[in-house]
Fold these 4 entries.
Entry 1:
Amino acid sequence: MTRTDNGFSATRRLILQGAGAVALVGLGNLPFAPAFAAANDKYPEEAFKQKTEADAIKSLYGKTAEASDKVKMDAPEIAENGAVVPVSVSTTLADVTSISFLVAENPVALVASYKIPAGTMPNVANRIKMAKTSNVIVVVEAGGKLYSATKEVKVTVGGCGG
Amino acid sequence: MTIRRREFLTLAGGAALTGSLPRLARSADSVYDLERFGNARILHITDTHAQLKPVFFREPSVNLGVGSMQGNPPHLVGKAFLDRFGIRPDSADAYAFTCIEFEKGAQRFGKLGGFAHLKTLVDRLRSDVGAGRSLLLDGGDLWQGTGLANVMKGADMVDASNLLGIDAMTGHWEFTYGEKALRSNLERFKGEFLAQNVFLTEEAAFNDAKAFDPASGRVFKPFTIKEIGGRRVAVIGQAFPYVPIAHPKRFTPDWKFGIRDEELQKLVDGLRNNDKVDAVVLLSHNGMDVDLKLASRVTGIDVILGGHTHDAVPQPIAVSNPGGVTLVTNAGSNGKFLAVLDLDIGKGKVANVRYRLLPVFSELLKPDPAMQGLIDKTRAPHAGDWVDKIASADRLLYRRGNFSGSMDQLICDALRSELDTEIALSPGFRWGTTALAGQPLTMEDVLAQTAVTYPETYVATMTGTQIKDVLEDVCDNLFNTDPYYQQGGDMVRLGGLSYACTPAESVGKRISELTLDNGSPLQAAKTYKVAGWASVNEQTGAPVWDVVTKHLKSGKPPNRSAPGVTLKGVEGNPGISKHV
């Protein structure tokens, strides 16, 4: 397990950050590239204002993502509770530097963006709030390129059992 | 009753006398004497909904399939169903499997099911193959559906299950009694309760809630391996994937569900590669469309024994997947059918199968005395209150159908009239027995339509937009072209409001022409008083069975107006029948 200098494992700290504050700040030991929010250690304020997932990805990364079966998303087909939908992602891609979660139909598309320090297992689980039935998109930045996976998650008022 | 029974015996014994209706002599031996096949027999019942006694149950005249499901089993009704499965019109099987001339068939062939009759048939089919060569599996919805099961929280059905000899089961409505009652029942159940797709929530796991396997968080045992006919057969349980969505979450706060086909694949792979089983069976409560999709994605399952959607499908559907072929079945509901899967199992491989879905014709089967005694004893303390006649059925009262049924029209009438609302909503449950015209209705009959653990009625104020959104939402649970987004169940029933539905459309565009009984269109921004029951949110109104009983006792004239659903774009769809 990779450990940061404060003694917490990096993945643990990432999960805690994600759960507590959703937005992401860098861990301080990443190469500094000022061009776009995801590579910056500042809060990506503009990205969190975008209405559509395409605009949010563009604001965050400055490029577009291609769908990849190497990005494995685990999300329910039908949410048990739209307020806390468990979505997790893992990937076999190498050199992962960030993982972001977006909900296309939410008022603001970007839900969370996590930075993945070198040597960390690229595996993030979080719960997201969904306003209604929507595509959920996860974007993995690896080797400077963006890869994505998409799944529709239904938020329902409830059906009737057979 | 006596007259009908005599008529039946006459018909059965002296077929030639009927002239225009030539029929073979019918007896238990002619119907249930099966040719021996293979080395292992699995018997499967599902969705009996606690119907300990024989019942009438009319199969649907509307069971539409959309997208790739259109025109394929189980979305065939009436004549299209008979043609597809080669069932002779006017036969006992036509009566059991379809809605065609239901009332006529009911007179000729009588009730189906009943656990004492089922016990006789199960014992016969197990003894036919000899000891150690058979299993009896139940696909869930065994503990709910009657007043007796509701008041006893399913405990009555545990006793009946033990006597029937159920080896393993999975669940759906079983969960609506809550964890405490479920666990207390399972302690007494002599078989195994299997569910690969029920896990502790993170909070429950953190608090060390009880689990079969704390490492994975699996609440129940996922599979069992049984040796039958000298071969090792794995049975995996698949509970209903949407329990906390289709029912109040408060019954299962610590558990999460889902289809979880990736976890299932891992289990199957482990059973094949490590446990070296010879056959893998999935005992599923997914619903047939979900099972058909799952069979195309998960490899290594020989047969999916399915339930939930109450589809009585006489033959398995073969589904190809990258690992080979998986057979998918669905075994009907309310105790009407017993499925017989005969397997010829070789080393590590099922060589061949033979499948039959046998209607349980109560009048052909002598009730098992021990089971009959148990049923009578269990009913005795409760049934006395429920057997008095409240009213008579003014017409054939049935529930099953995608959009409406006369039984739910009656319930909607009761809600509107007793709770004084313009509109009533009633859930599209698929259980609930059928009453023949003129038949006395008792509290027990009312409970057979309403016995749930959340029966409270409510009156709510809803805008036209909210009402339409609810209808769209439920309709998508039924007609989403991707079965993984369906939940089973039928369309919510409406009183006081008619509409048009285009099932092949997408969500938000299926429902149109919403019109109140007085002919005025439902207005988006206007508010309406709506009555309902079985809400997933906690309610405090009188139980719906009391509301319905009060309405029946009031003697108000029955509302015979048409259910008021106009279907669009269903021309040529064999999931709708003119035989109603």
Note: The interface with chain A takes residues 47, 141, 172-173, 240, 242-247, 249, 256-259, 262, 287, 308-310, 427-431, 469-470, 473-474, 476-478, 480, 484-485, 487-490, 492, 507, 534, 536 of chain B (CB under 8 Å).
Entry 2:
Amino acid sequence: MDRRATPAPNNSLPLVKRRQATGIWKDYQLYLLLILPIAYFILFKYVPMYGAAIAFQDYSIFKGVTGSEWIGFENFKELFRMSQFYEVVRNTLMLNFLDLAFSFPAPIILALLLNELSVVWFKKSAQTLLYLPHFISWIIIGGLVYQMFSNQGGLVNNVVNALGFDSIPFLTEKNHWLLVYLGTGIWHSAGWGTIIYLAALTGISRDLYEAADVDGAGRLKKMWHITLPGIRPTIVVMLIMQLGHIMTIGFERPFVMGNALVMDYAEVISTFVYKAGLQSAQFSLATAMGLFQALVGLVFVVIANSIAKRFGEQGIW
Amino acid sequence: MVGGESMTNTSTAKLKRIRLSDIAIMIIVGIAMLMCLVPFLHIIAVSLSSKQAIISDQVTIFPVGWDWESYKIVFQDARMLRSMGITIVLTAVYTVVCMIMSICAAYPLTKRQLKGRSFFMMIIVFTMFFSGGLIPDYLLIKELGMLDSMLSLILPGMISAFNLIILRSFFTSIPESLEESAYLDGSSHIGTLIRIVLPLSLPVLATLSLFYAVSRWNGFMDALFYISNSEMYPIQLKLYQVVMNSMVTDLTAQEGAIATEVMPEGLKAASIMFATVPILVVYPWLQRYFVSGVMVGAVKG
């Protein structure tokens, strides 16, 4: 940031110096526009990164970051001694891996199907409806899930009962709950996820399909040999990005969907940080957990990106 | 990301006859559409059905024993209306603030003559992959004295780095010659931005406004952390307190004799619909913008 204030080195020509100065003056409005956004990023993004230093302190809310005692890695040691730590890390990885296995292929398949639709009005209304769940809050999704899968009066169990079977404990037994959790993830994101693949599909040359028509290739053959390879780079990048975020889990979805009976699976890093930090005021311990997640997550992202580049893809940066 | 060079030539799109495989695909997609729709139909049906019909499990996707009572209760609930009012104002202010900030950030970053451009981009992009965490965020808000203030729901989320990148790549795609002719006419950077660049960016501006508005409307994590005064709860948090709590209570306490009905099912359903309808109303209007907007971000980003 200071670079523009530094005078040009002495050995540069005076003429160049003056032109640079007027150049910056001419563009002062650009810097003016940037002041508030950069201030925002420093205050709300970088100050908390400094604040994460309390992971190495015996933080007291009264003494603040500057006054609290430094205790090195004590918080991390305590964290690694807790059996709950391993549980929440395991759950986070498990939910994310299963999400990857089930939620990742769904938009690809859906995009291939949407791409094959030739009736325009049907395709348009399908897209409208399939994108909708992305815009519904997790609170409301939680309500919908309850209305659909509850043991008492849930629509699905009503149907199951009507067919003469016992109610299925979708929300109260952890393995069933896991299925509902994963299914809800697909419901929420599959439609929206098609957008990026549909965008990629528009880049595939028509000529390839026409050539395949001449060769007498059927619809499935064309999907397999032209369409799918055509979006392969996008699939690889999306997969690697998701792998990079394997340690990162949102707060709202597990928080809303979890309940006391399924905590064995539903307690993840983000909900643990909330409970330890804000509900039991163990600020340092919770920050240590958060920092652990952020650092491991960063390593994963960097690895994922270099793998993407090795595959000859563009990568994220 | 995509080889954008190969253009699709839409010459003579010949009228294809509908084949059997077309019908099969339509049926599969149709099932997916139904799965998106049924939960909403069910909850609408429950919210409009009579108590007896709900208790005896007769309600599927059509209302049974038409009854507006649940909605009457919701609309007479002053706290619920208050939360809705707060959320509408909050969402509107938040969206405007976010858009102004995002435009201010994105435009200079498209300019090659901006000194330190890649440095600024780097510090912005880095925040997408690393953060201090929930607790340092909370402590910062506390230090700033913004707990129990609407500012805590506006300021910390003013710019999404992701949206910023979408906007920046859209601005970059605008032909430079247009801006240059404005400069030749003596227009300043801000003048050019307002008169030339923004009018050409309406689809992406609409898309990003939708994203910001939806994230504010739907988000409740920050409110859960920062707002403890229930008078100031946004609608999602209110819904969580009122509806989800009673649902979870029912769910986990059912092993007892008879579940204590904290709240009638119809009322829960009506409350959920109350918070959903604004999204459902706005969504179809904005949907046509966001597809094109997102595509720009997806292909270029």
Note: The beta strands of chain A are 57-58, 69-70.
Entry 3:
Amino acid sequence: MAAAIKTQNLAPVKLIRNVPKEEYYLPGHRTCAGCGPALQYKLVAKAAGPNTIFLGPTGCMYVANASYLCTPYAVPWMHTQITNGGAVASGIEAAYKVLLRKGKREGEFPNIIVMAGDGGSVDIGLQAMSAMMYRGHDALFICYDNEAYANTGIQTSPTTPYGGNTTFTPPGSAIPEGKTLFPKDPPQLVIGAHPAVKYVATASIAYPVDLINKVRKALNVVGPTFLHIHCPCPKGWGFDEAKTVEVARLAIETGMWNMYEWDNGEYRYQFKPKKYKPVREYLKLQNRFAHLSDAHIAKLQAFVDAKVKAKPVPVEAAVPKAN
Amino acid sequence: MFKIPKGKEVPLGCVTPAPVGEQPMMITGNWREFRPLLEPEKCDLCMNCIVFCPDACFQLDDAEEKVVLNEKYCKGCNICINECAPGALTAAYELDFDDGVVRLDKPF
């Protein structure tokens, strides 16, 4: 039988002062000023530490960072196609385990992190992500959610909220609200259908200590894990770049974004406000919702009210768990 | 062992060395319109600017006693000014400075 593989154990961070000082996502990249995904990448890289392999499916965090051979990653990083982030992670994980078993590599098993956008995880890349989680590879799949295909010019994605104005859903006389569909729920998608997954959480750049702790917790779990991180996009959503963190915080205060973690069947909620602010406060900061009428906002408010009231029901595993 | 004839090896693709400390091939300091200015006497090292900078431009100095801005890469998004708890950061118009906008000899 294979010898036990040494795994890393990352300690949680208590205060914002204790956030590690070392940077693994260095200054000198081509993301827009005030980029939410870049901030998220920096915090995830800090949390993961030096023994990490990043995989970048096509998206903002590949296109804006890695063009013209200048990458800001101080740790190993590899580009994958937008469709196959999960498949490449599976291959690297399996290969690394063989190398460790045969003694060709020494030390601890690295953190394997797929840094996929909302398109690379729950739209185009869904099959590879699902397959990685189904087979139970020891990797962390992060979906940084900027709610659009931002690097190709803000096209709609399945996580774009109702009423969003994107280049594929422009508001006009026929469809006055822009996007008519309500968004997908990636964490529930992962929890509901993948018995090998033990840890799923949502995080936001507005609460960096919580984000770092969730990343470390997910990396300490042996097996596939999933994080859904809310990252406002100043260019795509149409707000002032100085307000990136403010918008992220408002999303939680209005209920548009819910912070929770799912730890092997048990839900825990974080930063749940006692009284939610009206959704209008979140919408009025952003240009992509500027066209919405009162009726549309009421529809979105009703959706959010139902979402924050409903407790997610843990799905009974349809297939027996392998281990 | 299978022997690959010379000149027929599969190329390794596109490999680039990892930068150390910073990526000097992509200097973004010249994007800036407003520069965050720090008043050291107001700063209480709350670390918000260090944690919330998307470009990792704010760092503690070696003695860990004060915050230093890396002006070479600061894009001027001013998130730090919004997030600074004691209000020690203010926005200053970039062209008011003598060293002004960072000019580059080559575009990148």
Note: Strands of chain B lie at 34-38, 58-60, 67-69, 89-93.
Entry 4:
Amino acid sequence: MSDTALLLRGISKLFGTFRALDHVDIEIKRGTVHAVLGENGAGKTTLMNVLFGLYQPDEGEISLNGTVRAIPSPKQAMEMGIGMIHQHFMLVDTLTVAENVALGLPGQGATLKLQAITDRLTELSDEYGFDIDPHEEVWKLPIGMRQRVEILKVLFRDADIIILDEPTSVLAPNEISSFLDGLARLRDAGKTVIFITHKLDEVEAVADTVTIMRHGHVCAEVEVAKSDAREMARLMVGREVVHDRMDRGSASPGAVIFEARDLRVRDQRGIEALRGVSIDVRAGEVLGIAGVDGNGQAELANVVAGLLTPDSGRVLIDGEDVTASSVDDRRHKYALSYVPEDRHHTGLVLDFTIAQNAMLRDFNVPPFSKNGLVNTSHVRDVAQDWVERYDVRMRSIDQTVRFLSGGNQQKLIFAREVECDPRVFVVMQPCKGLDVGAIEAVQRTVMSQRAAGKAILYISTELEHIMTVADRIAVMCAGEITGILTPDEATDERIGTLMGGHAEEGAAAC
Amino acid sequence: MLALVRYTFALRPVWAVLLALLVGSGLILLAGVSPFAAYGELFKGAFLDYWGLAGTLVKTSPILLAGLAVILPLRAGLLNIGAEGQIYMGALFSAMAALLLPEMHPAIHIPVCILAGALGGGLWGLIPGYLKAYHGMNEVILTLLLNFIAINIVSYVAGGPMMQAGAPYPYSEEISQDLWLPWILPSTDAHAGVIFGVLLALIMFLVLRYSTVGFALDTIGKNATAARYAGIPVKRYVVGVMFAAGALGGLAGTFEVLGLKYRLYHHFSPGYGFDGIVVAFLATVNPLLAPLAAFFLAGLKAGALVMQRAVGLESTVIEAIKGLVIIFVAASLGLRYDAQKWAARLMRRRKRLDDELGDTFQARTRGEGR
Amino acid sequence: MIEFLSNPQAITDFLSTSLRLSIPIIFAAVGGVISERSGVFNISLEGCIIGGAFGAALGAYLLGTPVAGLLLGVFVAMMAGLLLAGLAVGLSINQLVAGIAINILMLGLTSYLARLILGADATSTLPGFHPIAIPGLSAIPILGPVFFNQDVLTYLMYLLVPLSWWVIYKTPWGLSLRAVGDYPVAADSAGISVPRVRLFAVLISCAMAGLGGCYLVLSQVFVFTEHMSAGKGFIALAALILGRWNPIGALLACLFFGFSDALQLRLQFNSPDVPYQLFSMVPFVASFLALVFLSGKVRPPAAIGIRYERGGK
């Protein structure tokens, strides 16, 4: 047998005309930890889904242990010894560890042989130092332990190749190092581990080889021992970014309008999603918040908008404490506008018409309504005006927004949140899933708001977009601001390092 | 062609009713009776005859109000199975207001009785509404249980503290004749309750269509997350809408007391609250169509006895046909016309709302560690 | 009261009544546990009970043997279950709406068909199951006759409750059932067909509720009367919540309900001055309060009421 566990040659995967994977070649050696590094949307997850049989590649071939194989389904992948650990765990909370392993296990008789499973699990757990009690119910386990259960599930089914999709994104920082130790032990036991990540420090800590991906291409394959974080960061973020800033005029920030002081929030799992975040935004300034998805940005935006109550800390607008104010007060008394990340579930009511969605923010204040009655003709006039000025392509304002394209939906939201003349404007991931034209429209709107003297908080995982619009860039990692840079200071390298959690000296918060 | 399909599709409930009547005629044939004769007598007896029409209108009143009590919360994604209990509590409160309050001018006393009935039903809706909004409990189970509690409370009161001395079975004293609702058809039982019902349906339609409250309710029903984002106080609306729904159910009971029975009887409602659910779906959750649906359903009930007398067919066949109607209506609403599913939409609404409220009967956020 | 407690025969009679009143609910509640464990609300338990009762009466009437009644009763209830599964699992109609629709249909259909087929004979006594004393056990003082001088359906219940528990907790299918009800995505990713598990769960559930209806007719009153289910399906629903979606818990809750029902009957007969209505309210008030105070602590199957669509959220 060759020492190559998995060989991918010329793998391409198209979604419509979009090339999610473009002639990807990767060689993964047996008994190594192989990292796949890249920004969001680089094609990592698509690649892994191809390996696990969830997607069929449009071009190229996969060889497993030296023979070319098709992987038609996850079930077959498992039979071939490939196991996958999804980012969202496939565990049933109310069942015990052993039961989760037994679930759907082929070849069981009429009764559950939990004892046999427990014994083997204990063995496996000891072998890899996982320290798992098979009798414990999963919901009682911390996230890190649950991940081990997922790994045990895969090991129990005799997988040789273990794929982990963004395994550390769900872990608390203190769980990460023991997780990485676990990976090393898997490698030492002869397993081949493929793990997808965008965190440089993890790659450095545990990977033998790293494949760096960008826009569906493999752009480099590096021996970790012969490289360093700086180089990998540069390769990951890639291109010499042409900072083709929009014609933005000179920054002339005024007084501080928006302040957040030492915000702390725990998420539903009890993990601190915000660990003392403090920021301020001046009039006529765009503060960009960069960082990898899931590092507390969503919580920050929701706290600011009033949808989430912080455990401690304060939010101030024009010096007034609004931490306890309702969403309604923030919107109408303090003139805060918010473009949420999730257009479909938060920003719009998909089954409402364009006109109805246009009044969603201000339906209960004049001139949209008077004495509790909706002023339908005004709403319609306004909606008609907005769709024309913001270039929302549609058949009629009585069309439900479900059938608008993402870009047109976003333009409608922007129109609604901007036309009310806010003082504070919070924008979260506004360009997700949009085409180039729509992105430009969104960014132009942000810049015009900046020129109009609004305090703008622009949160995005897409660095390029932040570079385009932001006057200052705060980088978030694990619920903290790891640094605030001006665009001139913000080289890809520095931002990449900050995003990976390496706080650098001299860039202390605020 | 597409327009025709769309049109056909929009009329799903009508097709469902026709299909139910068709299958029902199979049931009628089982009895060796001609379906034409049976349906003929039924509809003649229910709608084309003065006395029959009066009987239909008498039944329309509670069925319509119960239907409205189901429709209103359904707009916000809440399923109120408790109209039956709300009917009983409304009847109880209005009977108490009629019998126990000191004598006053009827012009004051009648409104007081009506308001008391609305309040009684309202409280019975408020309880599950509050528990849903602030404790994330399932309103369906709660309202279901509250039905039985209300029925028993009324049985207790009508057979105990308020029972007329020497009555053969549990009922209260008769209320003063001054408090009786006016009749709408001379020398029949048809009372003004149905007028109230139609007026309320109209008002509800206008409120839902033109007011900010209606807009807020629809927003909650269609997407509770977006509602919260838009600054709508979702919890308060849930409580309020359940109170209002309960009040509508309470009115159904009130008018039974003030308009028809003039006493508080035990077990006086033959499941009008559940008929309300049929009405809500038959009317496709549109209050403007509710009077029509309720009138139709009441006609089936009222015409059944006429039919039994005329062609000797068991009147219970109507109960079976009612069951077929709701099955077919439910099934038809589940059919897909485009990418959206009607009933799935309801479930999504519920899910959204539950996510917002943290319903213990729905999935909480996965992976909750403790 | 003291007189009552000092009379062993009276105690035996009372407990026996309690047990007999709780048996139909036990069948339905345990059935409901199975369906709800798979993530399907079974509000149609009520309809399945009346369907089972009707089928039992019909079978016993037409073929003259209670066994035929039993088979037909279970069959009718399973047809109702098939309808529920078709609407709720197949067409993805709101489970609660589908359940309510089935209740209304079953109540109406059985009333009509009973008058049509049983007609004038409806009040004549049908052949049924009669108590069989188990030698030895039935001689235990007080409790012996209560538990071991019962009919075959009661013994079947003794068997089915632990069996249900065993199936749910000790078999691979039960594991799939629990997984499907809690997190169908995980079950699906483990190669389990979610709709199939739900279909079978609903069928079993309705069959058991149908047994409850059979018991009413074949072991208790030996006639079919319209609407004789009288809310038992809804009590069963409350019982299974109170019993925390566990067959044993549901059993205990049902026994409690049967006990309060027997108490209510006794009071109605023996002390007419005590308002019996307050006692017939007990099961409902108890379940309501239990729900309110256990809310947040009692965890229903997490995916209950939510249709499952592959690849959907």
Note: The mean pLDDT of chain C is 87.
